[in-house]
Design brief:
The complex is a heterodimer of chains A (460) and B (243).
Chain A (H helix, E strand, L loop, with lengths): L3 E5 L2 E5 L2 H8 L4 H5 L7 H12 L5 H4 L9 H8 L3 H4 L7 H9 L5 H7 L5 H9 L3 H10 L4 E2 L3 E2 L6 E4 L8 H12 L7 E4 L6 H17 L6 E3 L3 H9 L7 E4 L4 H6 L4 H14 L9 E5 L3 H4 L8 H13 L5 E5 L11 H17 L4 E4 L10 H13 L4 E5 L3 E2 L4 E2 L1 E2 H11 L5 H9 L14 H8 L3
Parallel strand pairs in A: 5-6, 5-12, 6-7, 8-9, 9-10, 10-11, 11-12, 12-15
Antiparallel strand pairs in A: 1-2, 3-4, 13-14
Helix pairs in contact in A: 1-3, 5-17, 7-9, 9-17, 9-18, 10-18, 12-13, 13-15, 17-18, 18-19, 19-20
Chain B lengths: L1 H12 L17 H19 L4 H8 L4 E5 L5 H6 L1 H4 L13 E8 L4 H17 L9 E5 L5 H9 L1 E9 L10 E7 L10 E7 L6 H18 L10 H4 L5
Parallel strand pairs in B: 1-3, 2-3, 2-4
Antiparallel strand pairs in B: 4-5, 5-6
Classes of the chains: A alpha/beta (460), B alpha/beta (243).
Chain lengths: 460, 243
Amino acid sequence: MSGFSATLNATRHSFADLKALLACASPLRSGDQLAGIAADSDERRVAAKLALADLPLKHFLSNVLVPYEQDEVTRLIIDSHDAAAFAPVSHLTVGEFRDWLLSYQADTAALAKLAPGLMPEMVAAVTKLMRNQDLIAVAAKCRVITGFRTTLGLPGRLGSRLQPNHPTDDAEGIAAAMLDGLLFGIGDAVIGINPATDSVPDGIRLLEMLEAIRTRFDIPTQGCVLAHVTTTLQMMQRGAPVDLVFQSIAGTEAANKGFGVDLSILKEAQDAALGLKRGTVGSNVMYFETGQGSALSADAHHGVDQQTLEVRAYAVARAFKPLLVNTVVGFIGPEYLYDAKQIIRAGLEDHCCGKLLGLPMGVDVCYTNHAEADQDDMDSLMTLLGTAGVNFLIAVPGADDVMLNYQSLSFHDVLGLRHLLKLRPAPEFEAWLDRMGMLSEDGRLPPPATETLKKLVSYE
Amino acid sequence: MNDVTRDIWARWRGTTKARIGLGRSGDALPTAPLLEFQAAHSRARDAVHGTADFDAIAAALQPHPTIRVRSQAGDRATYLRRPDLGRKLDPVCELRPGVYDLVLVIADGLSARAVDHHAASVAKLCIEKLPDWRIGPVVLAEQARVALGDEVGERLNAATVAVLIGERPGLSVADSLGIYLTWAPRRGRADSERNCISNIHAAGMSHAAASDLLVWLLREAKRRQLTGINLKVDASAVLPPTS
């Protein structure tokens, strides 16, 4: 089969191949328009969805979007596909698969068993037929639990990354932001610093600072300096206290090459981190960030739409049993996700697709100053993700990242969401907050008592 | 409660511009920091969506001649969605080739404010510091990305092009100017073939320091016939001489 078509309102719409069909079926976003692959009318978009709904899921097994011979991500997807896990849905079309995912039959256990049988392209396809409500409902049924020093993804819990960035990596400035976040109960997923300069000595200095504060207060969490994987490898070789290996990844071999990584270097780093045996409650040692549009930005998209490529990045992530994966959904800018509507939709898609593939999915709910979005929109996305059971959210002081110059959530936002939806931090971290005297009897975190403030903030 | 917080945080405030120790109204931001954030965001958005006052810039540059051009992105919404169009000259723009060592392009980029506040002054200083150079008319470019300078430089037959452009505004600084320098500009140049000076604003690099560094880079580019990753800024170019 080479082409697809559907007739709508007496107009026949044809789609040259699977790539074109998926791109046209994707909800409108500026990145696909920039790539020249988006549907040019709303009617054509729905026609593509109609044709896609009738496509058997099995079609994806024999029709790859990026050639197997040219792309190690495609090879990873095909070679690791679990046919037995796929069996329960192998007879379905994409449209029937949506119905199945929403059915009561597809419960948490069924979805967990199915995950290794799903290819990213199938997951991308079915979510193109879903409304936001579907993306939330299906994601909320998925449960992905990981651990290092804290256990993340448990029911009734919402993790958080504390992101205490500083434009010059000043240790005091970073410590100040860390202490501020800890007072809001933030940091159970990771305390993760984006370094201003990607260097081995600077990274080691920051890791040692993180380690000093963590051990000084005996905080059950993990630290991470989000340097390039090759930098982190060198830091480990020099004996630095590396908990997690971070890397940005994308959905094609060429885009990953643009990031300076391939599957073998990620494996090498994972093995090195596992060898350090620093986890206490689990041994998930990898942390990945992704985001729609990164492959187009690297001119490595092969004519595939940005949502499908994003889900292919999750296939890379799942090969390394990560502790944390998050999409940095609004960071890339308006040429890929133009406004809050597109950012919110993409955030829900990314979360749902990651969860369906069995990833411990978090989201950096964020935007840049040239996107049509503001903090009100972040409130909406954060609340939707909280109801969807997101594993963790990222928070920075006052929602303002002074190093990366974009806006994320504030510590206040995540704390407020936890209280609103009755979600708690990871159990080990929650016990620490309790030991520090920061929790009230009902488990909430009220404004801190003076004594607690002094204990933390007077830290030398 | 808030007074205690302020006292305790005072020791850290000098260490970071991050919004720490804001206090709490329940779980939310107190009103004052809430509105302060919105004020900062409004500055940044107005900088993105504002229009550079190129008439004032042209007047400030006199007697040096200027030319007005625009990209193929017809308006701001198109500019933000279509970076490819912001890199191409509108076909109506007329540029006649000359014999120029340097062409300066002042481009609105993502911050009209940065251009209004800093571009004319930096350009004038640069022109004054290069009396022996053949400098073409200053090109004032609307809805322009950095790479528009490649086509401008190519059509004017310039040996080097320096694009002074408004950087993406942050909450703390909405008027930061960047300069991108390209030897032998022509369409299709990669970013790795340019040198960049960034963070030119009141709390960052001064106009004098930026023009000094630009002039140093220009002379090196001319001497070595290149820009980009192989042209590293020598420490002596940026550090003041030690006494």
